[in-house]
Amino acid sequence: MSIQTPLGRVRGLGSAKSGVEHFWHQRLTAAALVPLTVWFVWIVARYAGAPHADVVTVLGHPINAALMLLFVVAGLYHMALGLQVVIEDYITTKGMKIAALFLVNFAAFAIAMICAVAVLRIAIRF
Question: How many whole angstroms separate alpha carbon 31 and alpha carbon 36?
């Protein structure tokens, strides 16, 4: 047991140097997702119930394919950043924390790659 105050224990350790960067990445992805989500909702509403060929034609357009890739990548990166904060705050066991962070990052990367391949396959056909 120490008689030192919590501030005294922390003093001299310095900052982790990653908090501000994480904060800005979270805010930038959120800002990017606003117009991308509006575009995505418009596409889904416009082509809900449309024939498969029509949807493939729309997603085959280079601009729509690029916007879909940006939407997926920004969304998954934003998700991973948010879950990282939750995991770091609420999982206390170091091993579980590392495993959970690895699982989240691996899943986000795998889903992003699968979506990128799917969108690029559609876009390259046209």
Answer: 9
**How large is the angle between the packed helices 94-125 and 62-90, nearest 10 degrees?**
170
Domain 17-125 has CATH 1.20.1300.10: yes
Predicted TM-score (pTM) of this structure: 0.83
Higher pLDDT, 68 or 4: 68
What is the C-alpha separation between 100 and 83, in angstroms, rounded?
Answer: 9
The ranges assigned to domains in the chain are 17-125
Distances (CA, A) of 75 to 55, 57, 68, 111, 112: 21, 23, 10, 11, 9
pLDDT over 90, % of the chain: 83
Q: Residue 6: which pLDDT band, with cuts at 50, 70 and 90?
A: confident
